[in-house]
Amino acid sequence: MAETHYDAFISYRRENGFLMAQVIYDRLKDRGVQCFFDLEELRSGKFDEKILIAIREAHTFILILPKNALTRCKNEDDWVRQEIVEAVRCNKVIIPVMYDGFKWPRKWSAEFPEEFQGLEHMNGVSGSHEYLPAMIDKIISYMPQEKLHLVPTNGINASVAMANKEEPMIENEFVSTEKYFGDAIANSENVESVDMAFHAGAEWFTSIEKNDQLYTILDKGIHLRVLLNYPDVSEIVAKHMRHKRKRYMIFEECIQYWEELSNEYPDTVEIRIVDIPILRRYYSFHMKDVRKDTVNVKYYTYGNARMDKNYQPIFHRDSAYFELYRMEFDYLWNRAVAFDEDGMNPPMRKHKTTDTVTFFTEGMSRITDVQQIDMFFRGGSEWHLNSDVVELLSHILDKGIKMRVIVNEKETVEETAKHMRHNLRKYYGYDQNAVNWIELSKNYPELVSIHIAEVPLMRRYYNIIGVENGLMKVSYYTYGNPYPDQDCQIIIEALDNTYKLYSNEFDYLWNSGSHEA
Q: Which long-range CB contacts under 8 A does 335-340 form with residues at least 24 apart?
């Protein structure tokens, strides 16, 4: 049998490195780079000789390093440890891919093998500053160019693939919910389960087509998880989005319908209720082939009765945002409670609303030794137009407080703005707004860092971070509403689990979902 030779061996840990490994594998494959990526088929027992052979055949060793990736390498039987040791012994080109807060040990302890010495000095790629196509470019540039044997993929010449390497991070598919589910149902034999999340989900009972699709899924024995809001939370959400000429189902009645459905299909339908506002519709198909999983996110367009006008992208597994939305659903699902006779009574919540200046003024006086402020929004024009907020910004910078700011790129802003802009309000042009933030970072290079994101930032996020505590404000855009103080917003203490969810989302967007301005 002829030997198989690879350009690169991808080493990863299944628990938190699979998705990054999958994305890198797919993008390198599209560029004609031949990689060994075992999908864990070989990891069923003892360390397999085939793994060693694959490492020896590849000239490059790509090491996926999310947070705490090396902790288990202290164990002599650890797979990643053995792969690294073999790569070092074979003198392979090693390219660490570091993201999600990964940090090298300050000093290698005796528990690590001697082969680990010097790994931190290898040419690596940091997820903190790399836009995905640029990250792939850098990985390829670190490979020994004379040994690369690019091959055409999917009928495309490798040189053409190289020329078209600037791929968008968002899959630009905008389809109706009915089409999204219809396409999946047509291949239902490949569907493992379906997840849904929304504040009420009434249309699954009021729309004939959706109701038919719902029962088709259940009659095929496909497992369904449905996440809903408590009625009082739904009221908060709905008061901003309801159209005055459209009739709506009572929230208590809607929950009752979902409960009856779970009683009708007790083995396949699971319903949970959560008090965190669900400000978008979320649908996800879990396929038997996990590489074909998708997420469909439908952002509520407040005051808009035309559902087909909603902003509704599909994210595939190779999208940088697929994992983010999956993580959010899992977090909410684990926090939610199963429906029971007390299901209408949510736990006590301490959320309150306040304007931007008051939030920062009061928050900075409460937080011990403020170290940093994180913010994201579509454009953040009020920080340059509102005199009170401009004065607040100067106050923050005069105190020497560092700021991380994420804003949307122009195309994304324009796409979302057409749903939310009020026809009586004047708006700042995006180009000028972006220039203002970039100029601010140039004037305060040690304090202000600006990133640009393509994924729609459908809420405003502020986080005051201190040495021991923090305070966060999350404000959801209410489309067609010119008064930000009427937005649906919550203030979250650092001890609240919700604080961790949103701060993790910011870190994910900063490290993996955006690039430097």
A: 335/274, 335/276, 335/497, 336/227, 336/272, 336/273, 336/274, 337/272, 337/273, 337/274, 338/270, 338/271, 338/272, 339/255, 339/258, 339/259, 339/262, 339/271, 339/272, 339/273
